[in-house]
Write a structure and sequence with these properties.
It is globular, with a radius of gyration of 17 Å. The protein has a single domain (27-243), classed as Divalent-metal-dependent TIM barrel enzymes (TIM Barrel, Alpha-Beta Barrel), CATH 3.20.20. The chain is an alpha/beta fold. The protein has an 8-stranded parallel β-barrel, surrounded by 5 helices. A two-stranded antiparallel ribbon has the order 8-9. Helix 1 (15-21) links the parallel strand 1 and strand 2. The protein is built from 9 helices and 10 strands.
Length: 266
């Protein structure tokens, strides 16, 4: 499947080299500490312009992943307000390096909260953002009060976000491990998601170390976990979107997974 745009999630110092080491045409990376509250930093020598130019010359598509700590859905002002601020900063930074999108997790509300609070917080967030690149909301594996674990919640989230002026700049990132661990069957999943969102902009092709509906976000190398290989391949084929593997083993482990996926999804 030579037309498949695929890559892995690697170190942020040189995403182009990370893609080339995986024989890939795409690189996903962070712009800072994924667990920290610090603004984006481009580690590539020469800064964002140099990275953009290097990626263009190498034919490498860039995708930036926002820090895991961001949660624009929560009612906790100490988290929601800085999350909005940093999300805007990361969107601009992603645009500067020439990324095709910024991936962010759907987040969650507090145990005592009405989930509708989280959906409305997402709407308000999108309404206030400048979106120089698409913002790709990713489904998550766990949490009873998550905004994007199960498709019924995703539908409510999409209705809320769809009310914002720039709703067409908000896309969806489908993670196969998260779907499986979150309680959604992979067979037919692409059609069910598209019926809600109308789009799939990126696929995170990850196997799962844990059983169906476990709520555990633990990735496994492709073919080594609980996901059915053909069902995983079906998601990739039908989504028709760029693919990122976020699997263990660094460059070698992900290179093997990329090769495996090219073969089975071809």
């Amino acid at each position: 499947m030579t037309s498949l745009v695929i890559g892995g999630h690697g170190e942020q110092a040189d995403p182009v080299a990370e893609a080339q080491a995986r024989s890939a045409s795409l690189a996903q990376f962070f712009l800072g500490d994924p667990q920290g509250w610090k603004g984006p930093e481009v580690a590539y020598p020469g800064g964002p312009v140099a990275l953009r130019e290097a990626a263009e010359q190498a034919g490498v598509t860039l995708v930036v992943h926002a820090p895991y700590v961001l949660n624009v859905a929560t009612s906790n002002n100490r988290i929601r307000i800085p999350s909005r601020k940093f999300l805007q900063q990361y969107l601009h930074a992603a645009a500067e390096v020439g990324a095709v999108g910024l991936v962010v997790h759907g987040g969650h509300v507090l145990k005592s909260d009405d989930p509708e609070t989280g959906f409305d917080n997402w709407r308000k967030c999108v309404e206030r953002l400048e979106l120089p690149v698409p913002l790709l909301i990713e489904n998550t594996a766990g949490g009873d009060n998550a905004m994007a674990r199960r498709l019924d919640r995703l539908a409510r989230l999409w209705d809320a976000v769809g009310a914002a002026a720039d709703a067409d700049r908000v896309g969806f990132c489908l993670d196969t491990c998260h779907a499986h661990a979150g309680g959604e069957e992979l067979v037919g999943l692409v059609d069910r998601v598209r019926a809600i969102t109308g789009r799939i902009d990126l696929v995170h092709a990850n196997d799962s170390r844990d059983a169906f509906d476990s709520g555990a976000d633990r990735h496994a190398n492709l073919g080594d976990g609980h996901l059915d290989a053909e069902a995983l391949a079906e998601v990739v084929r039908l989504a028709g979107a760029p693919v990122v593997v976020e699997t263990p083993g660094g460059r070698d482990g992900q290179a093997a997974d990329i090769a495996w996926l090219r073969q089975i999804a071809g």
